[in-house]
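Exercise 7b. Backbone tokens:
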């Protein structure tokens, strides 16, 4: 697939926790269709996948994701009771060792990501400095990961202000924006039966609270599913508003309602759905590039 006149293509990867492994499938399917982005930007899990892609490490990341099991997911969690359930130090040490290293200037593709300043609600764009530090700020989901401090600002997940940061892609010079919205079909899914823990992934929050002496058998959904439902509603409304104001040229919408936020061990399924999302939109992609 070749554009009539080459225009600068920006790939925007949205937030969505474990659903973000679908971004790998999107990138693979675009490459197979002859579409090579000139720049990439992302939010939350999209920032992580985008950074690895920009560094040239997607093969290694995909290999790890496809073999990732629930025990390995749990092993990367360092429990905290201040600011979030997970400190994130163990996870970031692992990611820096294997996938996200160096500064923005060392990357093979221009890359950017966003976070949210908690004191003001402003979005913060990262285009320089440590890639790992920027990604850590962008993935700091409220209640799950502790926020981080940078330049005197307390930062959390960029999905609080712009889950699919098309505006950042445009600011970086993208003339054609292909964006991936991981949340198009997820509102309410966190409380459905399909969203219950899958085989090999017990209700981690229920086990944790029980071990600390807190009762959880009150007939209500567990903590993680209530938090997920609330965040999904918020981010879906924010994403719709932001995309209405600054739409992508092509919006890819993987069907991921059956994924829980911590289903990181289901990488193969997510990658496959990312590929399928590109296949469904190939005519629109071709039209956008030929315009």
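Sequence design result:
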């Amino acid at each position: 697939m070749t554009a009539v006149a080459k225009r600068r293509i920006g790939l925007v990867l949205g937030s969505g926790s474990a659903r973000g492994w679908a971004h790998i499938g999107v990138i693979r399917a675009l490459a197979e269709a002859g579409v090579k982005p000139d720049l990439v930007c992302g939010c939350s899990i999209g920032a992580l996948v985008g950074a690895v892609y920009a560094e040239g490490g997607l093969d290694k990341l995909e290999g790890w994701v496809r073999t990732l099991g629930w025990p390995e997911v749990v092993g990367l969690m360092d429990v905290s009771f201040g600011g979030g359930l997970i400190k994130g130090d163990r996870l970031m040490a692992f990611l820096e060792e294997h996938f996200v290293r160096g500064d923005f200037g060392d990357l093979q593709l221009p890359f950017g990501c966003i976070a949210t300043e908690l004191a003001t609600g402003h979005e913060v764009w990262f285009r320089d400095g440590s890639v790992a530090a920027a990604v850590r700020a962008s993935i700091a989901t409220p209640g799950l990961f502790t926020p981080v401090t940078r330049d005197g600002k307390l930062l959390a997940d960029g999905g609080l202000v712009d889950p699919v940061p098309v505006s950042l892609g445009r600011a970086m010079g993208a003339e054609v924006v292909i964006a991936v919205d991981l949340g198009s079909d997820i509102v309410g899914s966190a409380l459905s039966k399909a969203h219950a823990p899958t085989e090999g992934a017990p209700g981690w929050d229920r086990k944790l609270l029980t071990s600390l002496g807190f009762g959880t058998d009150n007939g209500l959904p567990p903590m993680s599913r209530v938090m997920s439902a609330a965040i999904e509603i918020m981010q879906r409304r924010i994403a719709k508003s932001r995309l209405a104001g600054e739409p992508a040229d092509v919006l890819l919408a993987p069907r991921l309602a059956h994924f829980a936020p911590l289903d990181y061990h289901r990488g193969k399924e997510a990658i496959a759905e990312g590929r399928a999302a590109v296949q469904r939109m190939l005519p629109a992609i071709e039209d956008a590039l030929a315009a």
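Instructor comment: DSSP finds eleven helices and ten strands in the chain. Residues 193-202, 207-215 have pLDDT under 50 and may be disordered.
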